[in-house]
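Tutorial, part two.
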Amino acid sequence: MSRTKYLAFYTFSNTRGNIENGKLRPRSQGDTNLHIQTFVEVFIISDIDTYDARVQAIRAYNQPILNDFRTWLQQSGFSEKTVRSHVRNVKFFTEYLVYYDDPLKKLDEANNSDIRTFFLYWFPRKGLWASAGTVKSNIASFKKFFQWMGETGRISPKTVADVLTVLKEGRDRFLERVTE
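Running the prediction step on this input gives:
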């Protein structure tokens, strides 16, 4: 959802005037608040439809990546419990990328900044089960996932290196955040 447009139209709705050809004109006779409110509602509904369509498209795009990661983990000899844990952790990260990141991102567009923000701000607040153990589990999952993404050519070696650096250097701070 475009925050700038939303705020601009929200401010619009608090202004007295008529909307003519998409532009605000000084107030004349009649109740113009109804026209302005209708204009805002149409914009918001249209924006939500676009947002939902983008979320669904990104989810559909991410699913084969998650499936391939699961297959790789299984073929690498990990137990089914470990496979489920890694895939679940990465899938939860996709929720952050599509619902809370701005702009919305696909898994192969995630970078070290997304990882840092996820662990420092989002996961401690939104993951009600967040604990030192779940942070460690997520770090292990992300290491495996981003290394696999690099090995399969889905992301650049630089992105892999940057993510691994953030996971290593931020580990202690990430752990502190869930105990604060």
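Residues 3-179 form one domain. In part three we will examine how such features are distributed along the chain.
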